[in-house]
Amino acid sequence: MSNTVVLDVDGTLVDTNYHHTVAWLRAFRGVDVTVPAWRVHRAIGMGGDRLVAAVAGDKVERDHGDAVRAAWERHFDEMLDEIQPLEGAHRLVRAATDLGLAVVLASSGKRKHVEHYLKLIDPGDVASTSSDDVEDSKPAPDLIKVALREVKSTRAVVVGDSVWDCEAAVHAGLPSIGLLTGGFGEEELVDSGASAVYSDLDSLRAELADLPFAELAEPEA
């Protein structure tokens, strides 16, 4: 069974975290809710099903959650043509497959956005999952488990830019690698479970063969 690299997408392979932050801010303001930008950025990487309550509280979720998510999607779609891959994204994925590693992209984003990113990254023939494939998004481990089923693997390492990626890996019983590409700090990524943190994708690419692969934990009873 091949070792598998489970790669986050937003903030890890494509430079979207601050676009997402702006889109969410505009969505909240559309229902007359003002939240600080830093708090929104801190929540990027968790799924939209969780973000509204995490950022603005349960009452805003109850009263406006679906409206805010719909507005976020509309505002983000308006910026989609501005999105660019992060430097080294294509090289990282191709290097991993050249080493014989299985690669699967596991995104908390929507399927239509992931499909757009795939065109930008040109990763070759790799599997991918999105929030459309699970009921519970990061930091729950569901996306990781679905991603591994896609490639029929149970031995993996998770790579991501946010604390939510690292926490999802912990819940799955897997090691994680952090990247500084999404604006989260090294110390907080380590505190959330990352066994190592890299400043950019090319630095990670140079050490792909030495990543700490491990077996997926058994599902909870």
Automatic annotation (TrEMBL):
Keywords of the record: Hydrolase
Keyword Hydrolase annotated: yes
Pfam families, A to Z: Hydrolase
Record keyword Hydrolase present: yes
Coiled-coil features, chain-numbered ranges: none
GO function terms (MF aspect): hydrolase activity
InterPro entries membership: HAD-like_hydrolase_sf, HAD-like_sf, HAD-SF_hydro_IA, HAD_sf, PGP-like_dom2
SUPFAM superfamilies given in the database record: HAD-like
Record NCBIfam families: HAD-SF-IA-v1
Name under which the protein is recorded: HAD family hydrolase
Organism in which the protein naturally occurs: Lentzea indica
Organism placement in taxonomy: Bacteria, Bacillati, Actinomycetota, Actinomycetes, Pseudonocardiales
